[in-house]
Amino acid sequence: MKCVTLSVFLVLFFHIADAQRITWYQHIAPIIHNHCTPCHHDGDAAPFQLNTYEDVAKRAAFIKKVTQNRYMPPWKPDPHYVSFINERKLTDEQITMIADWADHNMPKGKPVAGKDDTSFISGTHYGRKPDLVLTMKKAFVVKGNNTERFIVYKIPFELPDSMNVEAIEFTSTNKRIIHHANYEIDDVPANLDLYNTLDYINLTEGSRLDYEQYVPYRKKMIYYGGWIPGTSYESYPKDIGWIMPKRGVILLTLHYAPVGKDEENVSGIQLFFTKTPVKRQIQAVSIGSGGVGEKDIDPYFYIPANVVKSFKLKVTAPEDQSFLYVWPHMHYLGKSFKAYGITPANDTIRFVSIPDWDFKWQEPYWFPKLQKIPKGTVLTVEATYDNTVNNPSNPYNPPRLTYSSGDMKTTDEMLTLVMIFLPYEKGDENIKMKE
Q1: pLDDT tens digits, 35-59
Q2: Angle at 421 between CA 246 and CA 242, to 5 degrees
Q3: Distances from the Cα of 134 to the Cα of 86, 138, 249, 252, 269, angstroms
Q4: Which of 97, 124, 391, 416 is 20 to 30 A off residue 405, Cα-Cα?
Q5: Which has the closest alpha carbon to 185: 165, 211, 208, 206?
Q6: How is domain 132-281 classified at the architecture level of CATH?
Q7: Is 416 buried (19+), middle (13-18) or exposed (0-12) by CB count in 10 A?
Q8: Interatomic CA distance for residues 138 and 147, integer angstroms
C-alpha cells in the first residue's frame, strides 16, 4: 500500500512540476514577440533577430542578464508616475520567467495555436501594406569617418486628391545607422515650385543658409512626427487623424550616428489611408528650445562647465485641449526630465517623468485615453543637466559651457516638450487610444 501511495505521489509530483515548467511556446514566446521582436527582426534597428526559438535560445543567458538589470527592453519613464499605452517595460513576473527558462535548459514545450506568430509584412509594423510610400530620390552615402550628421531631405509629392490618414510610419533601408528621425508634412500652394531647390541640406558640413530655401514651404504644416529605435507606426482613434494634402513636401531630418565605414541609406514615410472621413485633425505644439516659451525658460538656458543645473518652463494652455501624447527631448547632458500640468483648480495632471535620462532612448509617450487639459492649465517642465566629468555621456572632457544655438548639434543642448493634441470635446477623456 505504501509503495502504491508513493508511486501515485511521484506521478502527481512530476505531473505538477511538468505543468509548472516554463516553456518557450507557452510563456517566453509571447514576451519576446510582444516586447523584443518588433525591433529585433530583419530590416529594423536592432543588431540581431529574435524571431524564432533558435534565435532566442542561443542568447538565453544574455537575455536573462539584460532583462534582469532592465537594460532591455529599453523604457525610461517612471511607471509609478504615469503609465502609457506603448510601454515596453517588463513585469517582475516576466523577468523571473525568462531567468527560470534560461536556467533550466530552455525547454521548448508544445506549440500554442495562434501564439507563435512572428510574421511581419515586409517593411512595416502595421497590419497591412501601405497605400503610399514616399522616400528620398536616391541613396545618401553616410561617410564612415565617425562623425554624426544632421541632414534635412526634401521629398516633394503631388497626388490625385487629398487623403484621410489612418496611420503613418517611418521607413528606411538602414535603420541601424539612424539615431532618430523627425519629419513634417507641409501643404504647398500651386504657385510655389516644389522641385527647383536642393534635394537635401547638410546641416553638419554645409551652410545653414541653404535651409532658407525650405522656409517658404513651411507656411502650412499639416503633420509633425518622428522615429527612434523601438517605435513603430502612429495611428489614431476613430474619426481622429489628419488629412494628407494633394500637393506638398515632406521635410525629413535624419540624425545619422557616427559610423566607421561608408553606409548607404534611403528613408521616407509610408502612409495608410482610410475612406472614413477625419472629423478632428490632430495638432502639434513644441514648447521650450526653438518653440513656444523659449524665452521663458528659468533661469536663462545655458549650462556652465562643471555644474549640475536645473531649469523650469511654464506655458499656459490657451483653450481646453485633449492630449494624445507627449514627447520630451534633451541631449547628452540631460539628467532628469519631468512634465506636468497644474489646472486652475490646482489639480496636478502628470505627463511624464524620466528620472534617469538617456539620449539614446527618447520617444513619444502615448496616454491610454485622451488626456483632458483645461484652459488655463500651467504646462510645466522641470529639467536637470549634468555638465560635469561625472556624466559619462558628456561629449566634452574637460566640460565646456553649453547652450542652445539652434544648430541641432547634440554637443549643444535643448529643453523641449512636443505635445500632440486636439481641441477638447465633451467625452474625450473616455476615448481610448489605439494599441
Answers
A1: 898 888 777 878 898 989 999 999 9
A2: 15
A3: 26, 12, 10, 11, 6
A4: 391
A5: 165
A6: Sandwich (2.60)
A7: buried
A8: 21
Separation of CA 365 from chain center: 7
Domain boundaries defined on the chain: 21-120, 132-281, 284-430
Decide: 185 and 248 in contact? Cβ < 8 Å. Answer: yes
**C-alpha cell belonging to residue 373:** 487639459
Q: Residue 165: in which H helix or E strand, if any?
A: strand 163-172
Whether residue 226 contacts residue 182, with contact meaning beta carbons closer than 8 Å, is answered with yes
Which residue type occupies 307?
Answer: V
CA dist 435 and 299 (Å) reads 39
At residue 5 the predicted structure's pLDDT band, cuts being 50, 70 and 90, is: low
Rounded-to-integer distance, Cα 310 and Cα 314, Å: 14
Task: Kindly list the distances between the CA atom of residue 151 and the CA atoms of 61, 148, 160, 359, in Å, as whole numbers in the listed order.
Answer: 39, 10, 29, 19
pLDDT digits (tens, 9 = 90+) for 381-433: 999 999 999 999 999 999 999 998 776 678 899 999 999 999 999 999 999 98
Of 137, 145, 242, 269, which Cα lies nearest the Cα of 195?
Answer: 137
**The domains spanning 132-281 and 284-430 adopt the same CATH topology:** yes
Q: What angle do CA 18, 19, 20 make, to 5 degrees?
A: 90
Q: Give the CA diameter of the chain.
A: 97
Q: Which three cell numbers stand for residue 80?
A: 509609478
C-alpha span between 104 and 60 (Å, rounded): 10
Per DSSP, the three-state class of 38 is coil
CA distance 252 to 168: 14
d(CA 20, CA 92) in angstroms, rounded, equals: 17
Q: Which CATH number fits domain 284-430: 2.40.30.10, 2.60.120.230, 1.20.1090.10, 3.10.180.10?
A: 2.60.120.230
Side by side, the strands of the sheet bearing 334-342 are: 307-316, 378-387, 334-342, 348-354
C-alpha cell at 132: 503610399
- H/E element holding 382? strand 378-387
> Going by C-beta distance under 8 Å and a sequence separation of 6 or more, which residues neighbour residue 16?
none
Q: Is the pTM of this model over 0.85?
A: yes
